[in-house]
Amino acid sequence: MSRFVKLATLQELPPGGAKEVEFEGRVYAIFNVDGQISAIDGICPHQGGPLADGALEGTTVTCPWHGWQFDVMTGKTPLGPKIKQAVYEVKTEGQDVLVAVP
Ligand code: FES
What we know:
The protein is an all-beta fold. The protein has no helices and 10 strands.
């Protein structure tokens, strides 16, 4: 069962910003897309690149290592349906960003 854990604050995530957080052995990439916060698995499934360090354009993040792209809201990629990045539910409480960790 998942539970919501504070992994960031809104101050750390300006619009267009991203933050990588490691929690209980997992790496999360948290993004602010024009005020909407999303959290996905922060490790690129290609060769482990840090997705939080990728360029964010709209809802698309580009892995900084070899350019695979993911929608940070859905986890989907133009590479096809076989690859999908995990997406985690997010809520905010005041300035706190809470992520539903598995
Ligand atoms: S590690 Fe992300 S595209 Fe290669």
